[in-house]
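User: My collaborator sent over this chain with a note saying "see what the structure looks like." That's all I know about it. Can you take a look?
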Amino acid sequence: MAETTLQFVEEAQAYPAKRAAEARAGDFREIADRYAVPDAEAQSARCSQCGVPYCSVHCPLHNHIPDWLRLTAEGRLREAYELSNATSTMPEICGRICPQDRLCEGNCVIEFAGHGAVTIGSVEKFITDTAWEEGWVEALAPGRPRQQSVGVIGAGPAGLSAAEYLRVLGYEVHVYDRHDRMGGLLTYGIPGFKLEKPVVMRRVERLKAGGIVFHENFEVGSDASLDDLRRKHDAILIATGVYKPRAIKAPGIGGGGIVEALEYLIASNRKGFGDRVPAFDNGALNAKGKNVVVIGGGDTAMDCVRTAVRQGAASVKCLYRRDRANMPGSQREVSNAEEEGVEFVWLSAPEAFGAGENGWVTDARAARMRLGASDASGRRAPEPDPGSEFRLDADLVVKAFGFDAEDLPKMFGAPDLGVTRWGTLRVDHKTMASSLDGVFAAGDIVRGASLVVWAIRDGRDVSEHMHRYLKAKAAERRKAA
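Assistant: Without extra context I'll predict from the sequence alone. Here is the result:
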């Protein structure tokens, strides 16, 4: 092992080369290609194979990271893929969009020692992309039919992961989603420069080929109530995510040209698929030639500013009320955005929006902020700095404050569906069961807005709880018969 690993002193950290900022800002392709085989092996060989693998500990899926790094370093790529795939239904997607700087790589032992973390995410992407090209990704093989069916509401990462595990266990699985394509935010919320859409679609196609039935453009509460689906299936999983945009109150906030982040990103992604999008085509959701101001400091805000650059905005500014060190988004994404020409206006918050005679936004009026005492989360709370108001030209303002849960009991016609004070679904955290018998919940609709990797983990966990419930239900039926 010493010959193929522990090379972190001799071998410098090297991520796959990014395309020049000017080139990548002109399209929605991913900004970096994957490693060539020798490079992936060399970077994997930097792993220290430490006794306590903090990378795995801090991975929500507890992936066997040191093991598949060692296999990659030894040139045993198929085995590396099989081990990577054993704990994750979407390793190549996690390799692209996980905030590795806050999870596995951020807790790499050799990072602490000053040698630069092993480039875990890039290797993970390389392994599974290679597996797809080489035909190592096997078809989904359904288990022995169990004569029971499951309905999954929501085709995002939590729903798709649970659907895959339940199908492998032999259940008939139906997935219901409001969109015309499966994948949830993987498909419509995350731009192609972070996650190219064929990467998502090939996963969906694999599930379809495995017998999972997808119901597109299906609105629970309109096309069927939750009770209708409960009567149709033996168990239900709610994995809708959280889509309600958080609001702010400010004079002029309802004017034209002030839009929600998800609305803006969905329009852009639909255009990438070649769809007809009237609100994009008429300029309402298109940044071309405009002065764009994005408000927020999370990963969604980073997606919006970088999308605006690619749409040909005249200028792109990001207002965030805290400083760079206290922003929730990935620092890598901030660096990518800066390289592409985005200007960050730190410690600033909007106070009002001006509009022209036609009601369309003309400017954002903001105030400088300063960091005061720590709030409940431990972060220093921003507070206005008196007399520091300023103005920014703005033809398009994108609000990226985060997302809350929709009112599912009302939407689904299910008043007995229990929710927390935040509107997320209330579950028994030992079983992931909701307040309704046979109805389970997973992902952001339970956690609140979180990471894709946590949604995949929840999909994996809830499938085990649902399997136990369904086995017990089948045993009761046999006993009654």
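A starting point for your reply to your collaborator: The longest strand covers residues 361-374.
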